[in-house]
Every structure is written in C-alpha cells, then in structure tokens.
Amino acid sequence: MAAPNKGRRQAGSPGRPGRTLALFLIAMVALTGGMFWSGHVTPRLGIDLAGGTSITLQAKNTPGKPNAINKTNMDTAVSIIERRVNGLGVSEAEVQTQGSSNIIVNIPKGTNEKQARDQVGTTAQLYFRPVLTVAAGGPAAPQPSAGGTPSGSPSSSAGNPSSDESAGNSDPSPSSSSTAQGRAVTDGLKKDVTPSPGASSSGGASSDKDKPGASDKPSPSTTPSTDPATAALEKKFTDLDCTNQAARTKANQGAAPKDTIVACGKNSGGEWEKYILGPAELEGTDVDDAKGVLDPQRGIWIVTMDFSSGGTKKFQSITGKLSQQQPPMNQFAIVLDGNVVSAPSVSQTLGGSAEISGSFTQQSAQDLANILSYGALPLSFQEQSVTTVTAALGGEQLEAGLIAGAIGLALVVIYLVAYYRGLAGIAILSLGASGVMTYTIMSLLGPGIGFALNLPAVCGAIVAIGITADSFIVYFERIRDEIREGRTLRPAVERAWPRARRTILVSDFVSFLAAAVLFLVTVGKVQGFAFTLGLTTLLDVVVVFFFTKPVMTLLARTTFFASGHPWSGLDPKRLGAKPPLRRSRRVSAPTDPKEA
Known about the structure:
This protein is α+β, with helices and mostly antiparallel strands. 46% of the residues lie in helices and 15% in strands. The protein is built from 18 helices and 13 strands.
C-alpha cells in the first residue's frame, strides 16, 4: 500500500511554488527594467492614435505593356512597398489597394515618416547602360551645321567621365576626372554611321577624328544624319536642359530598356550633365543584394551591390568591353528611374559586385540600398494626394474604448468579489500581473518588430480580460468541487489543478488558433486585433501556470483560507460540503472497515 500512497502524493504534490513564483517575478522585473532601459516606456501608436500621413498612388501603364495594370502586378507592388517601408522600421504602415489602379499607403507619425514617403512611390527601375555621349547639362546653342548623330552603336563624342565614382575595383582615369566639369556640347561623332538599334554594350570604337572638347564652345560639327530617328535623338539631346526638373522628367519617359536614351545626372561637383546612353546591359533584377556602407579608405558613403550568378556574367561581359574603350565610352551609367545616379569609368573586367559612389549621406545611401534590395515596382505610380491624418478622432475613440474597458473590468471585479470573496484577491493580482506583462511586452515590441498599438489592438486587449478571468474561474470552480467532496483545502488545490489545467489549455488553444487564423487571412488594422488577442492568450497561460497556481498553493497554507473562513470564498458550509455522507460511503466499503 506504500507505493500507491506515494504515487497519490506525487500526483497532488504542490511542488515548489515559491521558486516558480520567484522566477516569474524575476522575469517580470527584467522585462520592466528592459523597457525603461530601452527608453520606450509607452507602446508605439498606430496612425489612428498617433496621426500620420496618407498617400494615394495611381498606377500608370508601363511603356510597351498596355495591360500591365492588373491584380497580380498591383499585389506585387503592394508587397514591395510594404517591405520597403517596414525595412525603415516604420510602425504599422498600412499598404492596400483601392479599386483597380490605386494604392493607399498610411504612414504613422514617426522619425522615419519622411523617408517612407520618399520611397513608397519610387519605381526603382534600375538599369546599367553604356555611355555614348556626355555634355554639360544646359541646352546647346544652335549649330550652323550638324554632325553624325548617336545611334545604337555610335562612336565617342567629346566628354569624359562625369565624376570620380568607381565600380567594383575600377578607378577613373586622372585625365577623365580633370575635365569632369564644364564640358562642351559636341557633335563630334563618327561620320557616316549607320544607325543600328541593337547596339553592343561597348558602344563601338571611336574614330581617329574624334577629339574631346575641352571648353564650353561647341566643337566642329560633322555631316548631318539622314535617319529621322537618329536626328530626333540628336535634337532631343541638344535641346535637353537638365537644370529644368520638367525636362529631366520627360527626357526618357516611355523608353524601353533596349532603347538608346538621353538622361540627366549630376557630376562630383554637383553640376548637371546630360548623357546619351546605349541599350541596357543589366537590370535591377540582376542585383542580389545592396547595402549602404561607409568606405573607410575614402571616408564617404557608398552603395555596394552584389549581383546574382546571371548578373555577374553580364557585368563581367559589359565591363570587359567598356574597359577597351576611350573616355567617355569606357563609362557605364547606373540609371535609376530614368536619372543617372552614377557614371563610373571602367579600366578592367570586374566581378560580381559593384558600388555606387557620389555625394551620398548616410541616409541617402541606406535609402537607395533599401530600394534596390527589395526590387523594382512592376508599375509606375503617380502621387495623387497626400493627406495629413490627425489623431483627434482616434483619440476620442480610444478614450471611449478605455472607458468601456474600465467599466467591464470594474464589473468583473465586482462579480469576483461578490461571488468568490477572498479568491477575488488572487484573481485581481493575476489580472494585474497579466496587465503589466502585456504593457511591457507591447512597449518592447514597438522598437523590436515595429508593432504599433491601434484601436483594434486595444479592443483585443480588452477582450483578453475576459479570457484571463475565465481561466481563474475554471481553476476556482475545480477547487470548490474538490471541497464539496469533503477534501480540505491543500489537497483540494493540488487535485483540482490537473483538471483545471486541461480545460484552460484547451480553451486558450482555441482562442489562439482563432487569433492566428484571423492574423493570416486579414490585412491592415484587423491584424492588430488578432496579434493582441494571440499575445494576451499566450500570456494568460504563462500567468495562470507561473503566478496564479503558485500563489494559490501558498495561500492554501494560511489559516484564513485553510480554515474555510466565510470571506475566503472556500467555506465548506456555503459550498454545500457534506462530510458525513462521505464518511458513510467509506463505512460501506468492505475493503477498509477501520475508517468507519
């Protein structure tokens, strides 16, 4: 009989409630201390509570793809914009479609709000194009005669690399940098060149008659082109004024990757220059990763890019061809959304990485790297409207919600005190512990994962009060059932726990499963409700297991509860316990007549 009795004592063993409770309190103090140490003592608020900016973007068809505005591309654009903004650490940025061609971006007020606004509509179409011609950025004076014009494979015009930027391990030549500013517009192209749309990336070999211009005066002209398309490109290049923003925007609007284009960019001195660029040899899709880093040797911020395996082969091919050309045709232009952000010269074949250098600050370098890392948008977008959202309405709703939550909590406390009396103190302490844990974790999740508290999330926290209180009620009722059967409090507390534990786990699992499904199948603010509900459900399990149960075990050892005081909530008389009936059942048992 000794072994079975020992087994029963182990099944109802109180364990080490003091140690368990101490570990819980240590964890709670550590989280609270971490919250104060991080400086984030309040949860981050969503746009409905903190205010912010709402941006409406309208999609435009991509040149050559009249049916590009479709559900697939719109969903892809939403995903890319969302990753870009979240990559900046903006809390609870909402990105969703509206209708068939609009995207709404809601950016909560915060330190990165301006950065996010600058990036949401950036198409980030990245191309690497060979430089065919470069000149000063202003419009050229009319020429009495015109020379050959750039085609798909023109020869070099006067000009040199536009800056001291580098790609990979290449360095610009000294002669090129010395004449980077103040170049003359020139038509010194190869005579009698036949236009060829499918030009090679090398841009062709330069003629013996090609001579770089070294002043602001127009260079001698050559025989005018008879091809209408080439003549139109020459005129567009000559008339282009890169100091005019509207002209820069329209310079290559509607151009396809394989077209020869004109574009604008700034040199190392901050002056505008204009380019004629050949067909794209690499695209942004060939970039595998990009980072904004500080070059320790030069002390400047740069953007490094690593290419995919296919991009590496293309990059090696184009740099190998360009390294054999004379300036400026040994340059390749890095073109982002139609603008030249860098035009480094190439002196040797490069491998699977490149860098963009220029007048970058830390923020601008990291912003560009962030855009390139998450890919280009499949569509071009035009900013339709920018609206500042105030927190006044959300604040009123939050106040009303908090009042409703306070009323609900007060009713729960009144019910617990009226029905459970002394046990209500344990329930209130557990609710307090759960509230501290929830608040602390929400505050830490703000800077950690960008979690922001919005109105639906507040609703989820209020609903969780009922879930947590339900767990206490289940445990208390199981203890009362054991007392009704004639057991004293200490064994009743331990025997009731396994039954209550199973019920609590099943109930919380169902609640958590519902929250997880809701989080996965919804978007926007509803996810805030689901996330908070799931978080508080997990915390309910932690609090009941590591706080409520140990506290109940320790209080069962006190005289107030163990003696069944009328205000303890565990008075055997009030619960209807009938010990005589229990003893009569034991008397009738033939196997144990001594207990009668």
